[in-house]
Amino acid sequence: MKKETEVQTEICDYLSGKVFFWRQNNMPVFNKGRFRSMGKYAAHGLPDIFIVHRGMFVALEIKRSGSETEREPNGRKVRAGTLSQAQIQWSKQFVTEGGCYCIVDSLHGAKVVLGHILAGTRPPILNFSRVVQRS
Predict the structure, then answer these.
(1) Which of 38, 54, 65, 75 could form a disulfide with 105 if both were Cys (CB 3.0 to 4.6 A apart)?
(2) For the chain, where are the E strands, in sequence order?
(3) What integer pLDDT is reported at residue 135 of this predicted model?
């Protein structure tokens, strides 16, 4: 099973040169044995990758698939496919404001989402790629 960071790298490598995108890292800086506090207006719950293409603003969250009993090498339980409360709140606001929030667990899922973006259509709900859309 690939780590989320490995899937993120695969997706970014694939997107490179195809669309305008960036990998978002919103973790605070670790300094002198602790995390520094985030800035006053730093957003919590941001997705992993943002894509902007021909007026479409897409947030791509990568979540690995896995079983309830799967463990990391350090023994920590894998939170497969689980959004944090901050991610849920952020995604709802993003979709309300017209963005498209997609959750994928593989390069294949990202390719399907990108296919729709390049065609100028919002990605549909997919079996292998969960998508949150504006209602």
Answers:
(1) 65
(2) 20-23, 30-31, 34-35, 49-53, 56-62, 100-104, 129-132
(3) 42
Element (H, E) at 91: helix 85-96
Q: In this predicted structure, what is the pLDDT of residue 129?
A: 43
Which residue has tokens 């978002």?
24
Return contacts of 41-48, CB within 8 angstroms, 24+ apart: 43/90, 44/86, 44/90, 45/84, 45/85, 45/86, 45/87, 45/88, 45/89, 45/90, 45/91, 46/90, 47/87, 47/90, 47/91, 47/101, 48/4, 48/8, 48/23, 48/24
Query: What DSSP character marks residue 18?
Result: T
Q: Please give the model's pTM, rounded to 2 decimal places.
A: 0.79
Stretches in the chain below the pLDDT threshold 70: 28, 66-80, 124-135
C-alpha span between 31 and 54 (Å, rounded): 39
Q: Which residue has the tokens 């259509």?
A: 121
| Parallel/antiparallel/unpaired status of strands 30-31 and 34-35 | antiparallel
pLDDT of 128 reads 37
